[in-house]
Amino acid sequence: MSSSDYKFEGWLGLDPSAAQGKMQWGEYEPKPWEETDVDIKITHCGICGSDLHTLRSGWGPTNYPCCVGHEIVGTVVRVGSKAEGGLKVGDRVGVGAQSDSCLGRKGGDCEACASGMENYCQKLHVGTYNGVYLNGGKSYGGYALYHRAPSHFVVKIPDALSSAEAAPMLCGGVTTYTPLKHHGVGPGKTVGIIGLGGLGHFGVMWAKALKADKVVVISRTSAKKEDALKMGADDFIATGEEADWAKKHASTLDVIVCTVSSSSMPLMQYLSLLRFDGTFVQVGAPEDGLPTIQQFPLIFKRLNITGSVIGSPSDIREMLQLAVDQKVKPWIEEIPMKDANRAIMDMDAGKPRYRYVLYNEKPGVSRL
Ligand code: NAP
Ligand code: ZN
Ligand code: ZN
Prior knowledge:
23% of the residues lie in helices and 24% in strands.
């Protein structure tokens, strides 16, 4: 298949109203081809909370037109002569939220990339959408028929995982996997996951797969309690329904991963759940910042407050293998690509249980 056999078409946000279900289907110009690139015929793309923040310019002005979606799985249809990883036409592959870094670039090789942490590249972190590559091309995401990506950020999907299951792991999955791993979650550790959404539900399952002693879900209501326990959680706190929840569970957790993206979250109460020397990892990204932090709990418990961004391609490969080995199955709902506008509105309303995955029924044919 030559590059002229397919067009790049997808759901485009044209202004902030796109986040209210007003994306429009249209054609766009992918990044100018480089021999390190691959083209992918998209079969599946998960819907991440970041897609909504970006569509509505919540983190700053978005570079419209913007096609979001960075949990992409599909089939390789074109491979550059300098592509990495032995990729071949026909391979089933995925792309997460990052699709370029300074690695291998002239003047590149920052400390982070040099140590295999491309996700922390301090020189060139190109997002899979709403980004600009070094060659000037824009990045367009996966609510689309085709995707072009630098091969370094394209990973093969293990045969044991279905494409629909693998897709949400590529951002939602790895974003919770990497902090759990980095902060030593395993036997002997108690873990809290705040917010049982797309990211949070992965957090619970990874913490169990990593053999944490105890995993506690901290959610606003008890509506998701039964699901959380089925995912493997050992305990559940409904902050909106239990008086004194923070006192009752004070100083019980070693590591917390917080997926909440609201500036009005009860942050100090969340922090009180940590033991002395405990670690709070913020991964949710509120559009208007975090609540104020009082100093004394930090001082007297030597608490660590930190953040974490997605994962490197090697983190993604490692996580996919953990999913295979430990039979981790995401809770997904599959939605046809044509219904993407409805899906993002339902996502905004908190309806997914627990991740929506868009699919192209007959890849290569417009759904309209
Ligand atoms: P999601 O599926 O909507 O999950 C977010 C969860 O947060 C909800 O399910 C809800 O859980 C909880 N929540 C929502 N509003 C809340 C509020 N006002 N107070 C307390 N809890 C609230 O979204 P997601 O896809 O998991 O993404 C979550 C956040 O992570 C987004 O901001 C996204 O941009 C960010 N993100 C960051 C990275 C990174 O690398 N750091 C990567 C991907 C995504 P309950 O119903 O259980 O309360
Ligand atoms: Zn994401
Ligand atoms: Zn770098």
